[in-house]
Amino acid sequence: MNINLTLLMQAVAFAAFIWFTARFVWPPLMRAIESRRKEIADGLAAGEQGRQNLSSAEKRVADLMAEAKGRAAEIVAQGEKFRSETIDHAKVEAKAEADRIVAAAKSEIAQEVARARESLRDAVASLAVAGAEKILKREVDAKAHADLLREIQAQL
Amino acid sequence: MAAGTDLTPTSYIGHHLTFQARPLAGDGGFWTVHVDTLVMTLLLGALAFGFMWWITRKASAGVPSKTQAFVELAVEFVNNQVKGVYHGESRMVAPIALTTFVLVLFMNAMDFLPVDIMAWIYHNVFHQENWRGVPTADVNTTFALALSVFALMIFYSIRVKGLGGWIHELLCAPFGSNPLLWPANLLFNAVEYVSKPLSHSLRLFGNMYAGEIIFMLLGMWAATGLVGVFFGSFLHLGWAIFHILIVVLQAYIFMMLTVVYISMAHEHH
Known about the structure:
A: mainly alpha; 2 helices; B: mainly alpha; two-stranded antiparallel sheet; 2% strand; globular
């Protein structure tokens, strides 16, 4: 237990070590520790943010899916309706067209019949006239006997 | 081991407890330097702080290397302890605590080295006859540390409260500001101020000195014969393991008291 100059020298050494630590060791280490702590905190926050984003995105996806399903069903229903409408429409049109064609054909046939009857009547009249000429051996004056001829024609 | 003298228990212990004292002026007295204490302190300090400095040079904020993580562990440990005790504004307190802890820990840890093997190495490798390897077993070291802390205490007291405030506190706390109570207050504060560095330094010194003595006694026992070797080694091992606790604990206590004393200097009464 002899106190001597060693004490002062040790105190100086201690002061020097404190200075060295405070100057060269402490600040860079604390900087590294603090910035790493901040990085970790940021990373955790970003992870939390990402998780939240994911869940909200999932929610949005579910919403979109539901909406899309609704829209698709709507479109399908519309298509169905449009198809049946189209078919009905086409049926009605086709019926009308068929009726029209049938009517046209009928009227044409009727005309043809009338025309044929007319020509036949003419032919019969002229035949009758020719027959009568032969029977009478003389020419029938068409003008003089027009009334008679018309009468015969009408009877045919 | 002292060449030329008979090896008696007294000479053995005395040899191990003799400092490498060099008088700087006249016949010594106060002007003596314990070269062993000083050199060991400087070597250990250079080793510890050089190592930490070397780590900080490569320190990165990214994934730390294992050594960096280890140093950061110590730094964070000290920083947390300081944050728990010290609530002042000075940013020097944590580095002071770190320095104290690391330095005391390294100086205490010299106690792990077996006394006789180290004595042989000092003698045969470095040709030093009396060389004590544990600086904290020198009362000069512990007083140097404790008185430095004492100076810091007074420095912070004056810085926080002002010189007038500090003197006012010396005279008026804890009993009151009546002038009749001034002597009692001053006496009370003087006792407190003297007891702090005294207990601070002697606690560390006593622990390390006693640890060394017990190692020497066990080593001496081993010199008495086969039974002594057996029990001496066995108990030496036990004491060495227990000493791991003491070394770290004393360094921790020394650091904590440093922080506590400095933070007490910040308190207003």
